[in-house]
Amino acid sequence: MLRTEARANRVVVGTQAELATRRVRVRGARLHRPDDEVDAVRLRYHARAVPCRVERNGREVELALEEDFHGAAPGQAAQLLRGDVIVGWATIARS
User: Fold this and answer.
1) Distances from the Cα of 58 to the Cαs of 5, 10, 53, 78, 80, in angstroms?
2) pTM (two decimals)
3) How far is CA 5 from CA 13, 60, 93, in A?
4) Cα separation of 34 and 44, whole Å?
5) Residue 14: is its pLDDT beyond 80?
6) Alpha helices (runs of H) in the chain, residue ranges in sequence order
7) HEC secondary structure over 31-47
8) 31 confidence band (pLDDT: 50, 70, 90)
């Protein structure tokens, strides 16, 4: 799913390539280490961790991924990692 259009009562779907992203906005981020210590994120329960860095613009937090990720789903949890250790979490926001 690429997006929902509530007013038109429509769900827009696309190809797998169109789902690819390198930037993921998150909300409610809780970190137990400084931003620069986060080196990866797990965006789905069984997905492998994707190398990333945390970028802040005021209160907004965005994850800059080092490779394409397909299907980051708003409302799902993002586990923020340093190596294999969870150092924080956030909720994936709508783009």
Assistant:
1) 28, 33, 16, 20, 19
2) 0.84
3) 11, 23, 16
4) 23
5) no
6) 16-19
7) ECCCHHHCCEEECCCCC
8) very high
